Amino acid sequence: MTVMLMVDNRIRAERFLRTAVLVDDMAFGDSPDGVMTASLEGGLPELGNDSAGPRRLQADLEGGDAVVGTEALDAKSVISGFAALGITCAILPPEGPDLQGARNESILALAKTADLVVLDWVIDRVEQTEGGGSFFRLDTNLKLLLEVLSADRASGNRLRLVCIYTGHPNLSGIRDEILKKLGETASSVSLPVPTSAIDYIDFNGARVVLVNKSLRGPHVANESPDEEGEVVYKRVAESDLAAFAVGKFSDFVLTGTLPEAALGALTAVRDNAHLILRRFSSDMDPALLNHRALTSEAAAGEYLLELIADEVSSVVTSYEAGASIMADSRVEARIQELLDSNSAEVSSNHDEIKKYFLGRSSNIPKKDRGVGLLVPGSESDASNAVEVDNKFSVLSSFARDGASYGLREVAPILSVGTVIAPVGGDGQGYPYFLICLHPACDSVFRSGDNSRKKQFPFLEMKVVDDDSRNFHLIAQDRGSYVRAYAESLSFANLVGIDFRAADDCDSVQAVWQRKDARWCFEPTDTVKSLNGPHVDQFVWVGDLRTGKAHKLLQSIANLSSRIGLNEYEHLRIQAKDL
394, 411, 430: which is the final residue of a domain? Predict the structure, then answer.
C-alpha cells in the first residue's frame, strides 16, 4: 500500500472511531502496598495460580531479578491520547473473580459496543479465605475477551479489534493461550480455526493484537527477531496507545477500495446524525399517527423506516468521498497493489492492465475475464476469479444476505424481494429458490382481518446445473455460490403459499432456529415441493435490493401486458409464401 493510501486510511479510521474502553486493574492505582520481587530464572508464576504474582514486571534487560512495580496506569495520558484523535475513552478496573459484580457487567456492556477494546492481560484478584483472611490470585482477562467475541458472533460476526496491552513479557505465551481457547471455541461451534501472526490473531471477523506496555527500555519500531533470534515485541507508552490502536484498526479493516468506501459512508452518517434527527422532528408526530390510523401498524412502521432509509441514503450519496475513492489516482494505486501481490502469475503488461481498468482501453489484456487479472491464483485456476465475481454479484443483488447475518433482535419480514428456499436434508443444497413478489403495502394485515392468514405469490427459480445457460439470481448456499433461473418470467410461473401473521405484529415474521442458527418462515400448511417431497419450513436466504426485486416484477408485468395480436400478420405470411 502506498504512503498516500496509508495516511488517507489512517485519517478515515480516526474520523470513524468514536469510542474505546480500556480494562486494567491498575486503572486507579488501587494496588497493594509494598514491592515484591520474583526471580526470572524460575520463570513467571503460571496464570491462574492461587499465589501472589507480579502485577507489573520491570525486567532487568541483562537478566537477574524482575522488580514488580505497583505504579498505576497513567490514565490521564491514555485518555488525552484518545481525546486528541476525537475518541472518547472509558477506563475501568475489573471487579472480583469470574467477571462477577455490577462493575464487570458495565465493563461487558461497554466492551460489546465500543469501537476499540483494550485489555490488560494480568489481573490481580483479591480472594477471601474461610478464616476471614485474603490473598492475591493471579488471573487474566481471557474470560472477558471470550465474552466479547461470543457477543460479536451472536450479532453477525462483527468486525472487532481487541488490543491486549500488557506488561507481561511473554506475549508469545499469551498468544498461544488465546489461540488454544479460540481453537476450542471454533471446534465446538463449527467455525474456521483462528490464524495468527507474530503479534496478532484473526478469528471469525475479529483481530486480537498483542503489544507490550512501555515500562522501561527503548521503544521498538516493529516486531522483529533480535540478535539471538528471539522476537522483540513493540512497546507502546500510554500517551501513544490511541495512535497505535487506530493504526492497527486501519491495517485490519481498510484493506481495499470497498471497505474504504463503506467506512467513509458510515462516517458520513455518523457525522450527520444530528441533522437527520433534526429533520425528523416531533412536531410532525400528529401526521404520522394519522397515517397509522388510516393504514395499519405494520404499514406505517414500514413507511417510516423507508423515509429514514431514504434520508440516510441521501447523506451517503452526497458524501464526496464516494467519488474520490474511485478517482483515477486511488484506483491506479490499488491496481498496482493488487498487481504487485500477483506479479508472479500475471504475465501481461502492467501498463496495459491499468489502461483497461481505468477505462482507457476496451481490450482485456489476456483471454480471460478482466477480474482475473487482479485475483491471485487466477492464472492457474480460473475458479478464483469466478469466486470473486460471484461474491460481488451477491452484494449487488442482496440488500441483506442471510449468510452474513446472525441472530438479530429484528426478525426478517416476508415482503417483496424476500428470497426463501426449502429446508433440505443434512448436507444437501437448496434445490430451488422462491422470490416473494407480494407488494410491500399488501404484505401487512389490516385490522379486522380475523383469519390472520394470507397467500403470498412467489416466483420459482431452479438451480442451474449448466454454467452455459442464462440465470436470474446468484445466492449463497452453505458457503458456496449457486445460480438459479426462472423458466419463464410470467404469471404462469408463480406459486401461491399461505402464511400466517405473527402473534405480536401485523406481518409474517421468520422464526429463529437456534440449533441450526438460521431464520425460517413456516407456512400454514405443508407445501408440495418442486422436487417431490412436501415442505413445512423455508429458510430465509436474504432480501433482494429494491431495484432487483422491482426489475423482476417489471419483467413479468411487461410480458403479461404484451398484446398478442398483429393485425397485419396475414399479409406478412402471405408475402413470405409468394
Answer: 394
> pLDDT, tens digit, for every residue of 69-99?
344 688 899 999 999 999 999 998 876 555 5
Question: Domain residues for 325?
Answer: 258-394
**Residue 551 and residue 396 in contact, taking contact as beta carbons nearer than 8 Å:** no
Distance CA 474, CA 542 (A): 11
List CB contacts of 203: < 8 A, sequence separation 6 or more: 149, 182, 186, 191, 194, 195
Query: How would residue 68 be classed by pLDDT, with cut points 50, 70 and 90?
Result: very low
CA atoms within 13 A on the CB side of 312: 12
Q: Report strand pairing: 235-236 vs 206-213.
A: parallel
Question: In whole angstroms, what is the distance from residue 46 CA to residue 49 CA?
Answer: 6
For the whole prediction, is pTM greater than 0.85?
no
Residue 283: how many other CB atoms lie within 10 Å: 6
Concatenate the DSSP letters of all residues of 266-302 into one string. HHHHHHTHHHHHHHS-GGGHHHHHHHHHHS-HHHHHH
Residues 282, 172 within the same domain:
no
**Is residue 326 domain-shared with residue 412, that is, in the same domain?**
no
Asked, for residue 218, whether it belongs to a domain, the answer is yes
